[in-house]
UniProtKB/TrEMBL annotation, chains A, B:
Lineage: Bacteria, Bacillati, Bacillota, Bacilli, Bacillales
Protein's UniProt keywords contain Heme: no
Record keywords: Metal-binding
Keyword Metal-binding: yes
Official protein name in the record: GTP cyclohydrolase 1 type 2 homolog
């Protein structure tokens, strides 16, 4: 049987109650195109597109957008040469790009959060999955040891940590992507008795300033900020494994991008 | 002559065309209170309030809000113990807090950007001040050397850098606070021939992903992300110097807070 983009997209979105409007879309590409191979990635970056082409894949399933904008606004890119070169590469490659953001976050549990928890090896410690956060009860360890373990498991070179490093933590909230903002994180500490939040990204004047105040008051509340890509790439890796099982005849591969930042 | 909070606020806001609505406000406090001393800071954190009280200051001029929210939304803080303890400290201290955000950004040049440029020692290299960005032409140096110089001048322990570290840079855009987003930064590279942007904070999927693509295309465009507080605290230090000159009889002091994050 010929497998088209439509089959893959239908499989990805089966049973999901999609928000309206959504940022998820196939662009560029036609649903009737036959799939040669699939690459999943955090973002369809220049590097990922080049890798997909080299691997002979003609469908990229990307969590974040292609052009540095959640809503795919492009007006301000104008004649920017990075944009133009990337657009030309995509056009000449013939690769289709499916943005898969909203729907995977609406899996039960959230498919991106689940990927991160799997990568951490913490599946057995989940107390409760909610829409935007998973609550875990992990074996007691210091915040510093938790941070070092997270770095090792995710193979990342650094994390940003707020709070008292020597405090012990066992009740942990995990929030991927841009869910690190104060209105999402701060109520969890009290409501769920959390010691530690592990998040992707969020405004620095919100949760980190709250944690600084908590530490100044002698309270053991801590935050590990992983980085947006670092928190969500594992979910796209898990997705590649699922697609491989659903389409055993297709080459499906997660491609890990380079980190956006170096620490100096 | 008795100097009241009103005199200080009138001095801070003289000649500024204030946006409506604005987040700037005196809360708590009465404009008729006599000033005993002033502390300026990036944020009125637990630590800053304790320091102000210890210094005998009864007016804090803060750039960011007290309760981890730009719009000062407090509903979701509820009975949070960090919030309650901080509120009680503020009430018992009798200290007035003036949020000074929108107006100082509307100074000509932007008072926060000017403070950062002064702290970098780059006043002589300014080509143009605009509302949200200053364009500089600095002596040519590598991105790595620029990052090391910035760390040294600002006395900060790390910066996050995107792009090619060995590329040389001379055309630099400086954007403080949360002006690091793609719609603000990306057009500058082409329009102003920038090699490097130094910013406070911004969404990681915007400018950093753009810089990663630019580097993958072999282009020399780079980004140094300072951190929000790190980019704006120098502006509040400069403000303290100005207040000292305007009110020579008053003790005015900038207090440097601890960084929100450690790198592990």
């Amino acid at each position: 049987m010929t497998i088209t983009f439509r089959h893959v997209i239908d499989s990805l979105t089966a049973g999901v109650s999609r928000p309206d409007p959504t940022v998820d879309k196939l662009d560029p590409g036609s649903r009737e195109t036959e799939v040669q191979g699939i690459v999943t990635a955090f973002a369809a970056s220049q590097y990922i597109i080049e890798q997909a082409a080299a691997l002979g894949a003609n469908l990229i399933v990307t969590h974040e957008g292609v052009y540095y904008s959640h809503q795919d606004q492009r007006e301000w890119l104008g004649g920017d040469p990075v944009f133009l070169q990337k657009s030309a590469l995509i056009a000449s490659s013939g690769i289709g790009i499916y943005r898969f953001h909203d729907d995977v976050h609406r899996y039960t549990p959230d498919g991106i959060t689940e990927g991160l928890i799997c990568a951490l090896g913490w599946q057995d410690y989940v107390t409760e999955h909610r829409a935007a956060v998973s609550i875990l009860t992990i074996p007691s360890m210091s915040v510093k040891d938790a941070a070092e373990m997270v770095k090792r498991q995710l193979a990342i070179s650094y994390v940003r940590v707020a709070g008292n490093l020597t405090a012990s933590c066992t009740r942990v909230g995990i929030l991927v992507g841009y869910r690190g903002g104060g209105s999402m994180t701060i109520p969890l500490f009290e409501q769920d008795g959390l010691d530690l939040i592990i998040a992707g990204e969020g405004p620095e004047w919100e949760t980190p300033e709250y944690i600084k105040d908590a530490a100044a008051q002698g309270r053991n509340r801590a935050l590990i900020m992983l980085g947006h890509a670092e928190s969500e790439a594992p979910g796209m890796k898990l997705l590649a494994e699922r697609l491989s099982q659903q389409f055993p005849g297709l080459p499906v591969r997660f491609v890990q991008d380079r980190p956006v930042f170096q620490i100096l």
